[in-house]
TrEMBL record:
<dbReference type="GO" id="GO:0015288">
    <property type="term" value="F:porin activity"/>
</dbReference>
<feature type="domain" description="Porin">
    <location>
        <begin position="10"/>
        <end position="356"/>
    </location>
</feature>
<dbReference type="GO" id="GO:0016020">
    <property type="term" value="C:membrane"/>
</dbReference>
<protein>
    <recommendedName>
        <fullName>Porin domain-containing protein</fullName>
    </recommendedName>
</protein>
<feature type="signal peptide">
    <location>
        <begin position="1"/>
        <end position="23"/>
    </location>
</feature>
<dbReference type="InterPro" id="IPR023614">
    <property type="entry name" value="Porin_dom_sf"/>
</dbReference>
<dbReference type="Pfam" id="PF13609">
    <property type="entry name" value="Porin_4"/>
</dbReference>
<keyword id="KW-0732">Signal</keyword>
<dbReference type="InterPro" id="IPR033900">
    <property type="entry name" value="Gram_neg_porin_domain"/>
</dbReference>
Length: 396
């Protein structure tokens, strides 16, 4: 992490060159600090076994990066203010994705966040203990919370923003200060799209029309408690989120409840995420539920272990496809991951993990010559795969 203090002679000189100023004027950035963080990662993947043999090779390499800029200052009255810009997919294959861009105000009253920030459903709903242990970055060695580049990961949720669309919006959010360990938060966004080019983007007029949009008037709320007792850390939280479906999308209704404990280098978490309507970014009104478990353990000397398991089940006739494009109407889904992480030096991490997943379906699709779905037949079939991943990352 690199810290830059703005102000001083260099910035003052630049300001004088740019425009005339009185002797007692100060640059508007006086006292601000900028923290620059990020990572660069490389990964090798090997499909150990799969029920799907429709490919030409079982292995591949991939790499990615992230840049994050955090700006912060505190006024004489104690008001903290700042901003964050986070750029994902810093690589040669994809356009850079700016998935965080917001300003915040923080004081004794709590925190107000304005912009593209994690929804309350993500802030309060996310529980996965290995995330606190593995020193992972952006899906590289992240155990259950990985990127699933070789298939899978289509249905389970570790918080309600998974598969709901709640992660794609510009919103206003209030988070309370801790009151005896108890906290709460609420958030609102006018419209949500499944496209990064819409949903409260710079061309705001597009958001006044339903075309290309998924939900409107989305609200999220969360309550929780955090505390420590004789070396045992504890946090429990719950969330509820609602939105009106538009453009032939179902209304969104999703909930979560979870908890995490930690003691002596061991952390464990359990989370339930239930979506009675609007799963798959508004594609279905059938109920989806996930139970997710995580266990992390630090062995010392830079060695950390992570275990994750998620079980998802769904109501009949949800008609959603998974990784296998021939099968639909999910019945249930099991995902299990084991990860070993080793910190070689500060900021330098390497890892190895095995991912196993099975998706069970109730139907098989019938397609015409153009690949369009024209019907379905009952077919109790599954997609199954095991993958080995290993890689190295440098974080700063």
């Amino acid at each position: 992490m690199k810290k830059i203090l703005l102000g001083g002679t260099a910035l003052a000189a630049a300001a004088l060159v740019a425009m005339p100023a009185l002797a007692d004027e100060k640059p508007v950035t006086s006292g601000l600090s900028i923290n620059i963080t990020g990572f660069v990662a490389w990964e090798a993947g090997l499909i150990i076994g799969s029920s799907d043999d429709n490919r030409d090779r079982e292995y591949d390499f991939n790499s990615n990066g992230r840049l994050q800029f955090d700006i912060k200052n505190v006024t004489d009255s104690g008001l903290e203010y700042g901003a964050r810009i986070r750029m994902n997919n810093v690589n040669r294959r994809q356009n850079v994705t700016v998935d965080r861009q917001y300003v915040y105000l923080k004081g004794d009253f709590g925190t107000v966040t304005l912009g593209d920030s994690p929804q309350v459903a993500g802030d309060f709903g996310y529980f996965f203990a290995p995330d606190d242990i593995l020193n992972a970055q952006g899906g590289y060695g992240d155990n259950l919370d990985g990127n699933y580049r070789y298939g899978g990961g289509d249905f389970f949720s570790l918080d309600p923003t998974y598969h709901s669309g709640l992660d794609k919006s510009t919103s206003v959010k209030y988070s309370s200060p801790s009151i005896g360990g108890f906290i709460f938060a609420v958030g609102f966004t006018p419209v949500i799209s499944d496209s990064k080019d819409l949903s409260n983007g710079t061309q705001g007029r597009q958001d006044l029309f339903n075309g290309g949009q998924v939900f409107e008037n989305a609200i999220s709320g969360g309550v929780g408690y955090e505390g420590e007792f004789d070396g045992l850390s504890l946090k429990v939280r719950g969330t509820a989120s609602y939105a009106n479906g538009i453009s032939n999308h179902w209304d969104l209704e999703t909930y979560s409840a979870g908890g995490q404990i930690g003691v002596d280098g061991i952390v464990a978490s359990l989370v339930w995420v239930g979506t009675p309507s609007g799963f798959g970014v508004g594609q279905t009104d059938k109920n989806f539920d996930t139970i997710g478990f995580g266990l992390g353990y630090s062995l010392g000397n830079g060695v950390n272990l992570g275990l994750g398991y998620a079980y998802t089940w769904a109501d009949k006739n949800n008609d959603l496809f998974g990784t296998d494009s021939q099968k639909l109407d999910l019945k249930d889904n099991h995902v299990a991951v084991a990860t070993v992480n080793y910190t070689v030096a500060p900021g330098l991490n390497t890892y190895a993990e095995v991912v196993y997943e099975i998706q069970s379906f109730r139907k098989k699709g019938i397609f015409n010559q153009d690949g369009d779905l024209i019907g379905t037949v009952k077919s109790e079939k599954s997609w199954e795969q095991a993958t080995f991943l290993t890689g190295v990352s440098v974080s700063f």
